[in-house]
Structures are given as C-alpha cells and as structure tokens.
Amino acid sequence: MSASIIDGKLIADHYRQQLKTQIQQLKEQGVVPGLAVILVGDNHASHSYVKMKRKACSNLGIHSELYLYESTLTQEELLGKIRELNEQDHIHGILVQLPLPEHINPITVIETISPSKDVDGFHPVSIGKMVTNQDTFYSCTPLGVMKMLEYENIPVEGKHVVILGRSNIVGKPAGHLFLNRNATVTYCHSKTDNMSSFTQQADIIVSAVGKANLIGARDIKPGAVIIDVGMNRNEDGKLCGDVNFEEVKEKAGKITPVPGGVGPMTITMLLYNTVKSAEWAHRNRQN
Ligand code: GUN
Fold first, then answer.
1. Boundaries of CATH 3.40.50.720 in the chain?
2. Which of 64, 107, 146, 260 has a CA that sits 20 to 30 A from residue 268's CA?
3. Strands (E), the chain
C-alpha cells in the first residue's frame, strides 16, 4: 500500500491561523510581537531565507526589523548591536542569520543574544533547558517536525526513532525533543557502520543529512513514518530530500515530500517562538 503524504504547507497554515489569534489577543493588550533580523554579508541563500522570514512576519502582523551589514563588519560592532537589541522592549526575538563571515565567531554571537530573545533556540541556556526537558525556545526545524507529528496524531512514546545527522541545528536537538516525548532514540551519522541496520528497525526516521537518495525502500520497515529534512538538488537540478520519495512512498506508512514537507514548518516555528517570547515578556511585565 502507498503511504499517506504529510502536507507540510497545510499543517503550517493550521499553526499560522492559531498564531494569528494569539497575535490579535496580544495586540488587544497593546503588544505587537517584534523580531530583529541581522544579516551580515552577501550570501545569496541567506538573503533569500531572510526575505522569506520577514514576509512571513508581515503576513501575520509581527513587526520585523532588518539590520543589514557588509561582510567587513567587526565582531565587536555586531555584539554591540545585539546588546542594544537585548535592551529594547519592543523586540522579542533576535535572529542572527548564519553562516557569518569567518572573522566572526558564531558561538560568541549566539551567547551574546539574551536567552529570553533566543527565538532560534541556539543559545546554550535554551539547549540546556531542552536537554533537561524544560519549556524554552526549541530550534525551529526540530520543533516543526514535532508539531507535524502532533497534528498527524502520530504516536511517539515508546517508538524507535532513528535520527540521521547530528548537526547542532537539526539532528541533535531533534533527538532530545523525541527523548522528551519518551521515544527510544538512535542517532546515525557519517561515521555510522551499516546505517541501514538501524533504519530498518525504525518506527520513525528523521533524515537531516543533505544527501539525495540516502534512504531507499530497502532501508525502511514497512509502515514506517519518514520525515525528510534534507534539501538537495538531484541530477536534473530539481529540489529533493534525502529520501528516494517515489520508491519509499510505496512501503512507508506516512512520508513528507520535498518540497512541501518540513520546509514550511521551519519558518512557522520561528513565528511561533517570537509570539511565545512576546507572551512571556508581557506576562513578566504584569507580574
Ligand atoms: N542558517 C540556516 N538555518 C538557520 C536558522 O535556522 N537560523 C539562523 N539564524 N541561521 C540559519
């Protein structure tokens, strides 16, 4: 039997509608959620991501400010801007688009953002809270994956989840979010021997490697849930994920397509974190 396709755009729209209601309620209390986006240099992909993020903000009524700098910006100048934004009450989220030019240390930059405005969920305080299963800002793509599964009523507790990839932004945090939901988690990565022996046992596979055709039908268990976070170009230049979709969809239970799967959820979770931050800040001011 053919798998059912998880429609990321539909699910993202569902969560955006919920956010609209929350934003309206905040506005009635005099609060407009605000996001500051900092972009350094002329990386083409970064410019287009930032444009998409700001457009999504504007569609929902979230205030956004863009700080665009030449790649000659010094690290001290960047840290100074972040410290200034940390103090501004109308800014609830600060996002420094990565990658940064080589002379700027991304760890120092991330650690300068106030944890209360860390809507990317990259700050060590956010990561520590995530690992200890506390409420905090979670990295947007893994959070989007969890929200997708929630929407689809896919059970996680007790399931074997195999995460492919161990990046700080996707793979590692995804494993912790599943662990927090009582899944049994296995990480596979570039040094894993016989990866297929793990994926074949998985109830849920989350692939965040960035390699087209990494997963084929022979690598999965019948009925498994396949979440494809990969963003690659195939031989014809077409956008594709890590999973051989045509082949795997005949054997999987549920599967996300690329494009139209996890992608639309990531920006939605940035909006989600920004609104959450605005709600927290407003509540703290009232107490
Ligand atoms: N570069 C690629 N993905 C991301 C992301 O999620 N956040 C930031 N700040 N930069 C990125």
1. 139-263
2. 107
3. 4-5, 34-40, 63-69, 93-96, 160-164, 184-188, 204-207, 225-228, 232-233, 239-240, 254-255
- Ligand 1 center to residue 51 CA distance, Å? 13
Q: How much is the CA Rg of the chain, to the nearest whole Å?
A: 19
How confident is the model over 63-70, as a mean pLDDT? 98
* Domain span(s) for CATH 3.40.50.10860 in the chain: 30-116
DSSP 72: T
**pTM of this structure:** 0.97
3-state DSSP call for residue 93?
A: strand
Confidence of residue 1 (pLDDT cuts 50, 70, 90): confident
pLDDT score, position 286: 87
- Distance between CA atoms of residues 48 and 27, nearest Å: 29
The alpha carbon of 194 and the centre of ligand 1 are apart by a number of angstroms equal to 31
Of the candidates 7, 81, 97, 159, the residue annotated as catalytic is 97
Residue 17 annotated among the catalytic residues of the structure: no
CATH 3.90.850.10 is the classification of domain 30-116: no
Nearest alpha carbon, ligand 1 atom 2:
98
Domain 139-263, CATH: 3.40.50.720
The complex's ipTM works out to 0.96
In a 3-state reduction of DSSP, which class is residue 142? helix
Residue nearest to atom 3 of ligand 1 (CA): 98
Atom of ligand 1 minimally distant from the CA of 141: 6
Vertex 137, ends 176 and 108: CA angle to 5°? 95
Closest C-alpha among 9, 15, 257 to residue 150: 15
